[in-house]
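User: Hey, quick favor. My workstation is busy. Could you predict this chain's structure for me?
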Amino acid sequence: MAHGAAGLAFGLSGIPVLACVLLLGIYLLSWVEFGLGSAGIGPGGVHIYRALDHNPLIDSIRLAGQPLLGTTPAVAVEKALREIDANPELLNQSIPVRGTPLNVALANLDISLTGNINGDAERQGDLMRLVREHVGRGAHLDHEESTDIRKTWLLRRAFYDGPVTTSSENPLVWRIVTHDRSPSRPWNPLTEPLPPRQETPSQFMVRDFEIPLLNRPTRLHGTPLYAALLDHAPDVCGVLIRDGGHLSAEEHRDGAATAALQALFERDPALRAAYTK
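Assistant: No problem, here it is.
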């Protein structure tokens, strides 16, 4: 600029700026490619998947739970099973966030706490078949997953045949899983005034005629205490334990049930003493 060449001076001074912009663009592009690759998009997707310890069986199982338009659930399930048969070494390979393939297969199920199947029953039937055949090929949950009572119960539900008969097997268990917080005894409209309206659910209580049901197990929902642990209802667990409720011997051999019980005792140590007395 001192020699009158202002254009040349500005051109030369712009080189460092352009270099910085170029470097920034390369940096941002590399992150975009990494993100796409992590999602399996683009030619580098498979390579990056492997670098992140990706398990392709999980993709097939997830797609079975969300079939593409024009693809029936049964076809998607068969495709997933073929992928499993072709990659037996990946059958129990866990990956971050998703967990094991069996964990993902269980996550596809849409089943309420009562055991009722939600949505398309035929589709859910195919997805439960995927879980059963997956287990039949040697699949299992990892240690952390196998101590989650909801996951292990879903696995039980996938193998359960026939209608859910919990309500007839043990009405107390059914009251727990349906969140029935009725009063401790039925209201008699002939001898008692209308009870006040309650804006919040009343405290759970075991009725006198339900005491013999406290430790009666059911096929799908187990004992009343197991059902309350499954529902993550510590208030109900406390009432059941103080009234004499226990897990069955079979449930005590269930790592998920005992883990849930121990977590309850850690929150309320007084319940441990009531349980063991």
